[in-house]
Structure formats: C-alpha cells, structure tokens
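Researcher: Batch entry, complex prediction.
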Amino acid sequence: MSIIKGAKARAQGLAMGALAKAVALAPDSWIPGSTPDPLIRRRSGHTGKPMSRLDGPLKVAGQARFAAEIALPGMAYAALAHATIAKGRITALDTAAAEAAPGVVLVMTYRNAPRLQRPPVFMSSAKAAWGDDLPILQDDQVRWNGQPIAVVVAETQEQADHAASLVTAIYAEEPAATAFAEAKSKGSSPGSFMMQPLHNESGDAEKALAAAHFRVDATYTTPRHNHNAIELHGLTCAWEADGTLRIHDASQMVAHEAWTLARIFGLAEEKVVVTSPFVGGGFGGKGLWQHQVLAAAAAKLAERPVRLLLPREGVYRLVGGRAQTEQRVALGADANGRLTALIHTGFTAKPPASAMPEPFIVPTRSAYAAGAMLLDVQVVEVDGLSNTFMRAPGEAVGTFAVECAIDELAEVAGIDPIELRIRNEPDKDPVSGLPFSGRNLVEAYRLGAERFGWDRRSPAPRSRREGEWWVGMGCATGTYPYYRMPGGAARITLTAEGATVDIAAHEMGMGTATAATQVAADRLGLDPAAITFNYGDSTLPGTVMAGGSQQTASIGASVVAAHRALVAELVKLAGNDSPIAGAKPDELSCRDAGLCRADNEAAYESYASILARANRPSITVEATPSMPFEMMHWSMHSHSAMFAEVRVNAVTGEIRVSRFLGSFDCGRILNSKTAASQFRGGIIMGLGLALMEETQFDARTGRIMNPSLAEYHLPVHLDVPDIEVIWTDIPDPHTPMGARGIGEIGITGTGAAVANAVYNAVGKRVRDLPITLDKLL
Amino acid sequence: MTPFTYARADAPDAAVRLGEGGARFLGGGTNLIDLMRERVEAPGALVDVSGLSQAIEETAEGSLLIGAGVRNTALAEHGLVRTRYPLVTRAIVAGASAQIRNMATVGGNLMQRTRCTYFYDVEGSRCNKRSPGEGCDARGGFNRIHAILGASEACVATHPSDLCVALAALDAVVHVEGAGGARTIPFGNFHLLPGETPDRETALEPGELIKAVELPPLPIAAHSRYRKVRDRASYAFALISVAAALRVEGGKVAEVRLALGGVAHRPWRAHAAEAALVGAPASEASFLAAADAELVGAVPLRDNAFKIELARRTIAAVLSDLSEAGA
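Model: Structure tokens for the complex:
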C-alpha cells in the first residue's frame, strides 16, 4: 500500500473510530434494534417453519433460467484468450488467424476495445464494487498470469473457443514477485479492512506471554483457495435501442454492479440494468470481474447481444479467491487456564492493486477474555490476480489458527478444551468493550457436547483404534459477525389479494426468497401464497449486497421500514369509521389480511375493506431503514460449537471424517429447512478447507496449475459424513426478526475441529492446511 | 476444440482403414474428448470404435477375451471376472465415477494419458510429452502426483489408469490390428517408460487398433486385492495403488503377483519384489523387505518423497491382508 493510500485509510479509520465511539455511548433508545422486533414474540406464524424453497420446482424441472441460458435475438458468443506471463508487456499480438477462422464476428484487444474508465474500488463509494482499479483491456500491460488479452466473438460457442485458441502473443517479461517467502523478505505493510486498521493491542502481550504459567506459541499456514460455485461465471448482455446496457448476470450485487458498470462505460446509472434471478452459488465470488465488462464492450463493438460463459479454467484465471496466510498464535494462561496473553499476528499476501487483505484476526477480536492482547495483520505484496472475499474471509482461516492453538493449550494445561473455552468466555467485547447483543456459546457447547457424546473422548491421543483406523474427536468454536450494511430499501404494493415486496436482493440458492416471503407474510398478516417477492433486478429499490451474511438483516430492516410506512398509509386511508381509527402504527398489529389493535385483536379491519372504502385498487410505499448503528452499539456475533470425529488410517495416513456436528447460536432461525442446508453446506466447504482445498500457484510463473475440478480437490459425496446441525434458536433482541445471518458461519471453526480431531486420533499436530495424508505418514 | 471429422466403424478392419492418415480412435471419450477440449490433442479425424466387440468370452484355453468396446462397468460386473480376477473388479470400481465407468471402454482405458498438470497446460507450460524437446516444467514444479520409478530427465509423468495396474499383475495380453495385420503384445511391453521420447507412450504402431484384452488363466488371481490410496475418498487419481495376488504354502510364499500404480510412466510390475518374496516366510518383515527391494531405485522429486514410504506400507498391508485372509 502506498503512503498516501495508507494515510487515507488511517484517516478514514479514525473517523469511523470517532463515530463508533459516539454510537457506543449513545442511549439504547436512539439505536435501531433498541425495541425488539414484534415478530420475535410471535412464534405461531410462518417464520421458522421448514418451508420448501419457492424456486425448488423450477430448478428441479430445469426451468430456472440462469444468466448464460438466456437467449437473445441475434446473439453471438464470446471466448477469451489469456496472458501466460505474470508481468510484462505485449510486444506482438497476432489476431489474424482468429479473425479468419470460421464464424468469427470480431476479435477485440486493447487496440480496438472501447475506451473505458478504471473500475472504482469497493468502499471508495457506496455502490463501488471492484476489488482493484486495474484497467480492463486498455493497454499492452500484463499484470497477472491469466489476464485476458483478447475477446473473440463468433456465431457459435465452438467457433469462438477455437478462434480464441488461435490468438498468439509475444511478451517482454518483467520481473514479478510471485513467491510468498521472497516477497515477505522484502517487507510488509499494515493491513486494514472495512476502513479499520487490522491491529488491536491492549497491555503488553509478549511480556504477559513470557510470564505465563502455561504457554503455546506456533505458526499456522493456509494456502490460496479458488472459488468453485457450481454455476460458472457467465452473462448474456445487449445494448438496447435507447442506449440501455442490459445484463443478465450471475451476481450477488446487482445494484452495485449497475452503478459500477455505468461508471466504467461513462453512462448514467439508470442506463445499466442488471438482472440476476437465479445464481448457482456465490460465496463472495459472484461480484464484478473483467468478464462482465469485456462482454459488454464486445457487444457494443459487435452491435449484437453477446453471451460470455467462462469455462472452469476461465473462472480460475479471472476470478480471485482466498489469499494465503501465515499466522502466529501464542497463548499464555495462568494455572487455572485463564488467558493472560493472546497474540494473533501474521502475514497475508495480495497483489498491490487489491483492496482486500485477508483479515484473519477479525474473529479473534471478540473470541476470548485475555489479560493482554496483540492482534495484527501485515500485508505482503505478490503479483497475481486480485484476491477477494471467499466464504467467511478472515474467520474461515483465522479460526483455524486460534482454535487449534486453544486445543494445544488445553492439552498443555490438562484442561478439557470445552472447559478451557468456557473459563475464558468474555462478559463484554474484549476489544470494543461493548455489551454483547446475544452470546450463547456456552449453551451451544452444552447442547452440542451432549448430542455428540463428547464425554466419550479420551484426552490422550492414540487412545482409540478400530482395525487399521485411529479414531479421534475434536471441537472448535466458529464465529461470524452480524452485519447490516447501509443501502437497504424496500417497496411494498398492497392489493386486496395480497402484497408484492420489491428489493434489489439476491437468491443464490440459499433460500433468501423463501425466508423473506415467510417473514413478510407474518409481518403483513398474509398467507405466504399471497406474497410476491421480487428481487435480483437493479431497478428495484435498495443496494443490498448478498455478502457478509447481511442480506437477511438488510431485507428484514427494509421490510420493517416499508411496513411501518404502509401501516401509516392504511390508517390514513381507513379514516374515522374504521375500528382502527386514530391508532398509531406502533399500536397496531397485522393479522388475517388486515390490521387490528395490538391490545384488542377484535378491533380489526381487512386490507380489502380499507382499500375498497378508499376506492383504491392498491397502495404502494417505499422506505429506507435507519443506518445500521446497532453494529456500533452492541457487539453482535454469531457462534458455533463444532464437533468432528475423524478416522486416520494407520498404514496410509488417509483421513476420513466419520461424524460431524455443528451447534449454532445465530439468533432466531427463519427457515429450519434452508438454514440446515446453509449450515451443512458451510461445514462441507470447511471439510474441504481442512483436508484438500489448495490452489497450486506456481511461484516460478505466477500461474495456477490446477484450474479444474479434477485436480483442485473439493469434498465428494463419499468425503461427507452425516452432518448433524442443531441450534439454540435464542433470538437476538436487537436485530430484525431476532435473526443473525447464517451464510458463512458454517465454514468457520470446521477446519480447527477436524485438525484437533486428527491430533486426538494420532497425536500429530498439522498446522499447515490442507491436512493431506503425506503430512501424517 | 479444433475442428475434426468423425466416422464410425464397428469392425476392426474398417476401423483400421478409416484410421489411416493419423486419425485417433475414439472409445467412450472420457479422456480423449477432455484432452481435445483442453487442446492437448487436436486430431483432424476421429474414428469412433465404441461399437467394436463388447463381448467377454471364455476361450478354449481358459482365457477371458475382453472386447475393446466393453464398458468398464460391464467388465467390473461380469461374473467370471468377479470370481476369477476380483482385483480387476476392484481396480475398476476404485476409479472415476459410476457415470464415467459406464462410458469408458477397456481399449480406451489402456490409452489413458497422464494427469500431469503441466501436460494439460498447453498455453502456459512446457512439456516434452506434448511438444518433444521443449522441456519439462513438472520436474521443478508441482509434482506430488508424479513418478518415483522409471522416470527420465525428459519426463516424470505417471500413468493414471487403475485397471491397467491389475492387468499388469495378471500378465494380460493385448490383441491389436493394423495395416500390416493382427498381432499380440504382452501387457508388460505395451506401455513404455519415457526415456528420451515421452511422447511415445505405448508399443502401438501408428494406425494400430486395440481389438481385445486377454486375461490368461491364473488360479492365484482368485485370491487378489486392489488397494488405492488417494487424496479424497473417491474421484481422485491414485497417489499409490497396489494390485496383488498371493498363494502361501506351509507359511511360505509359493506364488505372488504384484503391480503398482501411481509410481511410474507405466503400470509398474514389481518383479524385484516378487523375486524376493517367492520362498520367503509370509510375514510382514518379508513383505516390507520385498517392498524395499522394489523401491531401492526410487528417486523422489520435490513434492513426492512420501510416495516411497506410502508405497512400502501399502504393499506390506495388502500382502499381509491377503496372507491373513488365507492364501
């Protein structure tokens, strides 16, 4: 990071810090969430029920149309050619053979691409959504191995693919920093994330560590990971007659995307429309990458609609993943196992232009009460494709290091690992000093330990053997914060038949649309069948990113705000003859497709009756929720107690996870069916993180060598045991619906639970992910 | 994919005729089509021979003659294969996925090409197998899955087939036909070591077609195992695999067959280990000593030294298992 950028980030951090302090000290009543959402009390409605996905039948029947399945009249197909060096300049680019190939419409390179603005980096503006600010096909520079150097547009996909293979380039290579150790030896700079420095310090942790009764001090390393959503990144786009750029995309941020693309193409925001009704998995990877811009630019040049679907290798070359980390965790404890020192520091690698250092200390900030604490992330600059958010960035790999260290300390101190964690439960946030909005980790451990049979675990490794297999058990804490980002908004249209809720939100397979429908039904007193939830369209209200596990909170708060406006409007329309006449919105409840007084349910009038009397077919309201100051007033985090049983083969070192249980404390669960799938999916991804996921980044060339699902290993069915998920279901009194997001927490803690179980099985600590069999031989 | 022509032939002579001039024979397409998509292979012509014999017949001499068009699933499920050569069944079901096994043919299985990631990376990496003489990026790169035996300066790739490891242990015979007529190739001579010409992988002459694979009668094979060690529970290539058959008499090894996968450019028949075992006590110490005799010449690369110990342990475990199960 440059000095100027560093200073700017620090200044922003200070401003945020000052605001945070003011909000922390404000009276509760000024803060959103100070009055519990009335829906928390209602336990008899649709919220929480295991409702099946509303889009399930469409998907099962193959009728859900994904972005690269939309057919537009006159559409052409695009394919990319990629650079094969890490850094340098293109000295010759030969496109003649590609241009002459059958079916080719055009070949676009930096020489003929439309002139484009550089992308705005996220957090630089409310709707900015790019991970770096590198130019897109605008010059002869190569900035990473895999960068697109040409776009071929042809009549068929096969013709485009073939022609793209005929593009040849000659390069003048420049020295690139591609090896982590070498880059690290050249120095590092302080990391910052979400405008906050990745550094926290209280007391003298090194001194406390040196004086501690019990001590552990070790280094943990985690490799690069790549995004592998089932649905490949792809889009179909067209420039319409009025100059509108219409994009059918696979996106977890349609409104951000429309604004950002408008900036890049120099258009008014409303001239870019992005729709994304179905997304086959996002995980942080379905943001903006070069392919959307390249397809739109090619469509402009070709004056035809264009479809660009990246092949799997293309996703590896174009879409960043999780960055590599090297973390030190040192713990000191007194004779009773109470932490006197907690040190979590280390390094992460990222390219100079990337705005995203992997923030692995974030989960540690609120994890344990410790006498002295030192948390720090240093950034090492390595040339390559910009890294990005990948399910629980920070938490996924940060909890691996810290929760393994806690297990190591438990052994040194001779204390059960769960008991050790309970002894170090903080009563307020250890870094911010804020009260917790809801923290029931101990209860999650109690429920999980009983259900899993933790009492059957022997604390001594190599205690249980079944045939060729050593069997071990381990546990770890998972955690993820409650987020609600600014930008939420919702529109409700009420008719005599039901209601339509419009929000520019996203359904990526997790069940958002279903849960939102359940909640809206309860809030409006309607049957879910009477609710239409529209989403995945940048022209709808709101700038709601499906990221940070915040979408449900953002939708919830937006609907709360719109509902309030709707009730006020209905009271006005109802007039003096209604049983609800003169009531304030807070004095009313919704039931049976109408409004009643909260303290007298008999005083009721139906929506149909109110609308008919007012002679209105429908009413429409739109509202924006308050800023998410609750996040600065309370320490808001979900937790989980993760339990793994693994078997390690005594001959070969092969590892099989034979049982897994996740016990979650995530506030109120809104849909027990889709939530269970979310939790399980996160855990499965965590099993991959623990045992097999690793991007083979060849440091000689900066090239990813395993860009395929055959060679980049993810868990297959046989690697996934029965996974039991349970939850406390204790509502958070300060969040909409009492819920906290659940999209990411499943992957956190999982890696450490597996690693700790491996240790319990065979007595070997593997601190370098993934835990492959060669590390156990 | 580079444009190509397609023709279909259901009889060997027609296939050979159509294949003249550099066509590639296409079986189930589970490897060749992938390689064409990745542009590792760009044949101008394909001759689809998946319609060749799908019969599994017993010959007068007591061999099993397996048509080149037999699908892997059918071979694994065949009653005589399961009883006489159970290691063949086990090797097949240890590989790929059910869907792929349903498509893959026996002939195609013999022609599988390495999973070396540098071999696959046409645009960005050097590979002597793909482009003879340009160099090998695997030797100094990611080579966890690469060879420890029989490699050369030019190439450190491994053969990926599971079935072929079992066939190597069984002394199978490959029946081929070319423009010059029909001939047979002993399985041990079919796949080649890389040497200076890693682009040449089999003993097939240009245009020669695999018609059938013959499993000779081998009573010991009824007591056999195939064990595959890999990085996940399913759908991964072998780090090490062991195909073995064993007969013990009076506490001593009377007869043994042993072959290894994941260690070399070809399925590796462990002749040195077999020689060390015959007449030796059927004990874990003998099994480990035999493994050592085979692996004495093993040369590790940057990432794969673990394979030597893994192979040693797995060989001993499989032989112990066979020995204890009543050889």
